[in-house]
Amino acid sequence: MKSTFYVTTPIYYVNDVPHIGHAYTTIAADVLARYHRMKGQKVFFLTGTDEHGEKVQKTAARQGLAPRELADRVVTRFQGLTPALHISNDDFIRTTEPRHYASVQDLFRKSLGNGDIYLGEYEGWYCTPCESYWTDLQIVDGKCPDCGRPVEKRKEPSFFFRLSKYQEPLLDYYEKNPAFIRPESRRNEVVAFVEGGLNDLSVSRTSLAWGIPIPGHPGHVIYVWYDALTNYVTGVGHPDGGENFETFWPADIHMVGKDILRFHAVYWPAFLMSAGVAPPLGVFAHGWWTVEGRKMSKSLGNVVDPYQMVETYGADAFRYFLLREVPFGLDGDFSKKAMVHRINSDLANDFGNLLNRTLGMLGKYFGGTVPAPSLAGEEDLALIALSREVLSAVDAAMENVEFHKALSAVWDLVKAANRYVEAQSPWTLAKSPADRERLGTVLYNILEAARICVLLAAPVVPTAAQKMWEALGCEGEVAKALVSSAGAWGGLRSGVTLPKSAVAFPRIEE
Ligand code: ME8
Question: What is the pTM of this model?
Answer without folding.
Answer: 0.96
